[in-house]
Amino acid sequence: ISETTTPGSRFPLTEAHDPDLGKNSLQSYELSGDEHFSLAIQAGPGGDQRPELVLAKALDREEAAFHELVLRASDGGDPARTGTARIRVTVLDANDNAPVFSQAEYTVRVPEDVPVGSTLVTVSAADPDEGFNGHVRYSFHKISDRESELFYLDSETGEITLKDDLDFEEISSHELQVQVRDGGGLSDTSKVMITVTDVNDNVPELTVSSAVSEISEDAPSGTVVALVHVHDRDSGTSGEVRCSLDGGAPFRLEKSFEDYYRVPELMLERALDREKQSSFELVLTAVDGGDPARSGTVHVHVNVMDLNDNAPVFNKKLYEARVAENLPSGSLVLQVRATDADAGSNGQVSYS
Question: Over 60: is that where the pLDDT of 132 sits?
């Protein structure tokens, strides 16, 4: 009998036979064993009694898949004689139960460097129906194009695995709608929240937004040489950057804003002397706070422009020469020489 059978439905039963006659023949039936069923007796055209099984209460296969009944027939003799028959009612399944997820929402946190192919979470649903009605399959109900490239859902097991690399800096969380459907078409939905946690997978980036290629050797201390923008796509301590200046040059590094070294300034720290060093190769290094830390560098080349801050100097303080009194006019008497440490026209000397 199907579990959807309407109460009051009747099912004919096999009649009992008693070869005695009259009072000693079959007189009555009695049913025992289960509240779901009752007994009805129909009178045949010859006065015979025909038993019928009546469904008194709705069936539920998930509650009881079988019902065991006993039908007893009695005659009217003294002493009375009885015969019994066992009735086994099998309840046929109907798709009267929808599958139900074990959780209304599944949450999981995974690092962005989790390997492709890893199982992130497994959803599960139960359906108390049997056979085809109780067989469930899983599918994504609502999912974006990007997320369909990232995640794979096994329709049989409910495992959600990773198909492509995650990127916290691109998307830090994913909300998926998962549906389960049984063989009869009944369904349930659940939400899956996947939170991507940051790992230190980005190198600090330094960009020279403005810089001078030349600086005069008489430039005052505090002159800005370059502005450098520092950016790290990571978050938290992995995105906190410290900057340093390498090279032992007469420059210092200052931060322009309270936000730690977002825009470092290269500034002249002490007086320059082109005659001692005519150019500088400055190396700025940015190190983040990740573990392990990552670093990035940028180079700034600065030439020192000459200033006429050096006088020409003779190679001797006193030049002496001895000449004969009959030396012809135009003869070389001696040669003086002077040098100037400055460059270009500042270092060209003339004599008088």
Answer: yes
